[in-house]
Structure formats: C-alpha cells, structure tokens
Amino acid sequence: MPVGKSEGPLRSRANLFRTHPSLTIILSLLILILAIFTSASTSVIPRLGLLFGHLTPRHTPATTTRHVTTAATMTTIYAAELEVAQLAVQRAAQLTKRVFREKGTKGAVAKDDASPVTVGDFGAQALIIAALRARFPHDAIVAEEEAAPLRTDAALRERIWRLVRETRLDDVAAEGLLGGAVADVEDMLALIDRGKSEGGRRGRVWTIDPIDGTKGFLRGGQYAVALALLENGDVKVGVLGCPNLPVDDAAPLTADIGANQTDEEGRGVIFSAVIGQGAWSRPLGTGALAEGKRISMKPITEMSSASFCESVEAGHSNQSEAAQIAQKLGITKPSVRMDSQAKYGSIARGAGDIYLRLPTSKTYQEKIWDHAAGDLIVREAGGQVTDTKGQRLDFGVGRTLATNSGVVAAPAAVHGQVLEAVQEVLGLK
Ligand SMILES: Nc1ncnc2c1ncn2[C@@H]1O[C@H](COP(=O)(O)OS(=O)(=O)O)[C@@H](OP(=O)(O)O)[C@H]1O
Ligand SMILES: [Mg+2]
C-alpha cells in the first residue's frame, strides 16, 4: 500500500492548523478548561452542591465513610460526619434554648415509663434526623422519642411544627450543609419516627438523645443535646451540645450547677470527639461552627481533692453508695450533682474528675443514647469508661446497654483504683 495513502489525513490535518492558527489556540483553551474542571470536581463542586442542597451524590457508606486526604497525610476520617453532627446539634440546641426560656410546662407530657418529654425533645429530634436523612440517608437511627403522641394531639403537634419550621442556623452555608428546612408537618412526624432502629453490632447507626436530662431541662438545670455515630457497635463520633455549661473549660464546677441555670452570655458549649482524634470543645453558636480547643482530663495527683459528679435524680444513681465510695477513696469534697451527659463533658475538660452512675434497680437497662457521645468524649480526653463490673460499655447490643451495669468514668491512670472502691462498696469483689 503506498505510504502516501495512509499519511493523507494526517497531512491534511497538519495543514489545517498551519492555515488556521486560531484553531490551535481554541484547542489549547479547551484542554485547559477540561483539566481545571476535572480537578475542581473532586474538591470544590461537592461543597457547592451541598450549599444548594441537592447537586452532590448522597452519602453511601462505601464511598465516603472514611476518606483520608493524601496532602501531608492529614487524616479526615469521619470529617463530614463530625461537621454535620456538630451543626445538627447546634441547630437543635437553638430550638431547645427557645423552649428552655418559656415559662410554664414547656409542653411536657408523661411517657409510658412516666419520664417527661417536652415539645423541645420532639422538635430537636426532628431537626437532627432531617440533617442525617439529607446527608447520610442509608444510616440507621436509634432515637429516644417517637411521634405517636403527636398524631393524636393536634395542638401539641402544631406547637412543635412551629418550632421546627422557625428554627434554622443563621449561616446559609451551614444550613445548606444540613439539607435545609423540613417540608411539612407530615414530614416532621415521619422524621421523628425514623429513629426506631433496633441498633446492633452491624453497620452505621446514629443514636440521638434530643434532650438528655429532660428533668434538668424542666428544672432549669443542665441538659444536653446528644448525638453519636456507631459503626459495627463502636462509637466513632460523639457530640454533646450543653447550652447551660460555661464556655470556659477552666471554669470550676459550682455546687449550684444543677439548678437555676441560664444560657445567657458566656454559656453554651459543644463537646466533640472522633475515635483516635482527641476530644474538643467550642462555644455553642447560632451559625457556622466556632473555633474548637482540644480538651483533656485533669490528672488526679491527690485523690482527696478530686471531685465526682453524679445524677441529680436519686432514682437514676444510688447517691448513698456513691458517698461511701468517695469516703473510701478519701475524697473530701461533696459530690457535684447535675443532669445529663453534661457530666461526661465536664470531666472530659477537667472541670470535674470522676463520674459515677450506680444502679438503683436490677431491671433498669441504660439507654445507648444516654451514654454513647459522652463515653467517646471522655475516652478521647484521656479517660477510661467502664461499668461497675469493669467492662467497657457495649453499644452493639441494641437500644440499651443490656449487658452493662452502671458507669464508672475516671482519668485512665486512676480508673483501676476508683473501680476497686466501687466494687468493694457494691459487694462485687
Ligand atoms: N432508673 C433509672 N436509672 C438510671 N437512669 C435512668 C433511670 N430512669 C431514667 N433514666 C435515664 O436517666 C437520664 C437522665 O440522665 P441523668 O440521670 O444523668 O440525669 S438526671 O440527673 O437524672 O436528670 C434520662 O434521660 P432523659 O430521659 O433523656 O432525661 C433517662 O434515660
Ligand atoms: Mg437521656
């Protein structure tokens, strides 16, 4: 075959570029634009999409559960989960703070187990689940409340819907990261009922306590908006919003911390932790996340000057046994009583030292949403958390900590000593 025949088209293309130099420029520009677009699509575009709520692919565990950036080996494992969880807690806390300031009953109704639930609990749960559905639609959710009482009580339902409709972060980008507003009342009820998962040891499970310490919330004391991510039964991300705790990590715990509190200036903190990445605190805000600070437990040099935290409610933790344990350890200060997982946050930042929760009944099973976030935050701050038998809290059993009994949380260096005193007093040795 003549050589010229196969070279024909090539030569004519070369002639084309020679006679039309502008074609070369256009082609180069096209290649440049293509290169920029390819690199942007892996970084900028996903964030833009999130801002407008629907452009990016929704989360699928296989693709975005763990992404580790290559640049300078900076680890961003669970970075998206941490950001969304903190913003979701911050948004929900705006709602609970509004209810907290209301005089009167705060829409409280009694649940089947006689514990109270307020409009704040339902509203906060709806808002948190809305964010999780928008960003991690395949994840299971174990949440404390269910919508049944709202389906039969129109006035209660309308009151909660108004709160949910009117609560948003005052930063457009942050609100966009949470997927925006809840569509309507029916959607709100459906969201609340998405929290009925049985939990367990497989896959990704979020656990939510929209108002932990509802009795404290009603009393004007401490409460927490609690959210944690479990993966295969282990806590990977934990976030606690505590609107009535001081922002200042160094502020000592006062005797009155469990009552007559406000969320005014200087109060409101978010604690957070990711497995293997330490624990942090930052001011609880109303829009984008404020800057965080690393927190750690205070080393106990003298057990006699240690302080321990326990529940306000004598029905939730045996206070006389706790006093005997304190005495055995030589602790001289009276216990600090406060509601909710604010206790875990307070010892994690060194404001207190030890948290004891001693069973008051043989049949009560602790709920995973009452402990998951606090457990990780304390452990990542240098603490150890076990039950009274010395076993790690097992969040993979289901909705409750069915195999555990009570909680003993203390700095790792003295946990063994504290546990020994607990076991002696409880007759477990
Ligand atoms: N009998 C018994 N024993 C142990 N724990 C119980 C018991 N009954 C209830 N609860 C749970 O306690 C949660 C409140 O947490 P605290 O006990 O730390 O705070 S408080 O001082 O009691 O308010 C509280 O959480 P919220 O319902 O979210 O307030 C309950 O889940
Ligand atoms: Mg609770």
From TrEMBL:
<comment type="similarity">
    <text>Belongs to the inositol monophosphatase superfamily.</text>
</comment>
<feature type="binding site">
    <location>
        <position position="212"/>
    </location>
    <ligand>
        <name>Mg(2+)</name>
    </ligand>
</feature>
<dbReference type="InterPro" id="IPR020583">
    <property type="entry name" value="Inositol_monoP_metal-BS"/>
</dbReference>
<feature type="binding site">
    <location>
        <position position="209"/>
    </location>
    <ligand>
        <name>Mg(2+)</name>
    </ligand>
</feature>
<keyword id="KW-0812">Transmembrane</keyword>
<keyword id="KW-0378">Hydrolase</keyword>
<dbReference type="GO" id="GO:0000103">
    <property type="term" value="P:sulfate assimilation"/>
</dbReference>
<keyword id="KW-0460">Magnesium</keyword>
<dbReference type="InterPro" id="IPR006239">
    <property type="entry name" value="DPNP"/>
</dbReference>
<dbReference type="GO" id="GO:0046854">
    <property type="term" value="P:phosphatidylinositol phosphate biosynthetic process"/>
</dbReference>
<feature type="binding site">
    <location>
        <position position="370"/>
    </location>
    <ligand>
        <name>Mg(2+)</name>
    </ligand>
</feature>
<protein>
    <recommendedName>
        <fullName>3'(2'),5'-bisphosphate nucleotidase</fullName>
        <ecNumber>3.1.3.7</ecNumber>
    </recommendedName>
</protein>
<dbReference type="InterPro" id="IPR051090">
    <property type="entry name" value="Inositol_monoP_superfamily"/>
</dbReference>
<dbReference type="Pfam" id="PF00459">
    <property type="entry name" value="Inositol_P"/>
</dbReference>
<dbReference type="InterPro" id="IPR000760">
    <property type="entry name" value="Inositol_monophosphatase-like"/>
</dbReference>
<keyword id="KW-1133">Transmembrane helix</keyword>
<keyword id="KW-0472">Membrane</keyword>
<dbReference type="GO" id="GO:0046872">
    <property type="term" value="F:metal ion binding"/>
</dbReference>
<dbReference type="GO" id="GO:0008441">
    <property type="term" value="F:3'(2'),5'-bisphosphate nucleotidase activity"/>
</dbReference>
<dbReference type="GO" id="GO:0016078">
    <property type="term" value="P:tRNA decay"/>
</dbReference>
<keyword id="KW-0479">Metal-binding</keyword>
<dbReference type="InterPro" id="IPR020550">
    <property type="entry name" value="Inositol_monophosphatase_CS"/>
</dbReference>
<feature type="binding site">
    <location>
        <position position="211"/>
    </location>
    <ligand>
        <name>Mg(2+)</name>
    </ligand>
</feature>
<feature type="transmembrane region" description="Helical">
    <location>
        <begin position="21"/>
        <end position="40"/>
    </location>
</feature>
<feature type="binding site">
    <location>
        <position position="144"/>
    </location>
    <ligand>
        <name>Mg(2+)</name>
    </ligand>
</feature>
